[in-house]
Amino acid sequence: MPDAPAGIDPRGPRFAAAITSALLLAATFLAFTGVSTRTAASFGWFAHQPASGAVFTPGIGAASVFERAADPGFLAVLVVALLFLWSVVSPRTAPWGVLFRRVVRPRLGPPAELEDPRPPRFAQGVGLFVTGLGLVLHLAAVPWALPIAAAAAFVAAFLNAAFGFCLGCRIYLLLQRAGIVGRERAA
Predict the structure, then answer these.
(1) I want to staple 73 with a disulfide (CB 3.0 to 4.6 A). Which of 31, 93, 131, 148 is the partner?
(2) Is the dihedral of CA 80, 83, 85, 91 positive or negative?
(3) Does the model's pTM come out above 0.70?
(4) Are 14 and 164 in contact (CB under 8 A)?
C-alpha cells in the first residue's frame, strides 16, 4: 500500500469552504433571479388578453445558448466551478489555499493534528461535478438546474465552513470503506 500523502491543516479546507460558500450564496441568488427560473406566462386558450395586464415572459427554452451563457448566475457558477477545478488539479496553487497558508495560518497556533488531504480534494471534485452538471444542464435549457446545483453546492460548503461537516469527505470515506477509492486492490 502506498504511503499516505503529507497531512494538511484541517482549518485550511474550512477557510476555503467559508469563502466558497459566500461565493456560492451570491451565485445561487443570481441563478434564482436569472433566465433559468423564468417561466412562460399562461394566457389560457386565448393568445392575447389585454384586459388581464399579464406580460408575456419567455421561459429558458426561448433563450438562445448565448443568452443562457451570458446569464449572470451562469457566469457566477462558472467562476466557482473553475475554482473547484483549480483546487482539484493543483491544490497547492489554488487561491484559497495560498491565502490561508500565507496570511491566515501564520497568525494561528499549530493545528492539534493534521488530516489526510485526499478527502478534502475529493470533496472539491464533488463540488466541481455538482456545479458542472448544473452548468451543462442550464446550457441544455433544463429549467431550475442551475439554481438547484448552486444551492446544493452552497449547502455542502456551508456545512463544512460552519460546522466542520464535509459531505464530500464523508462520501470519500464511504467509498474508501467499500474499497472503491484510496486503497490498492488485491491482485
Answers:
(1) 31
(2) negative
(3) yes
(4) yes
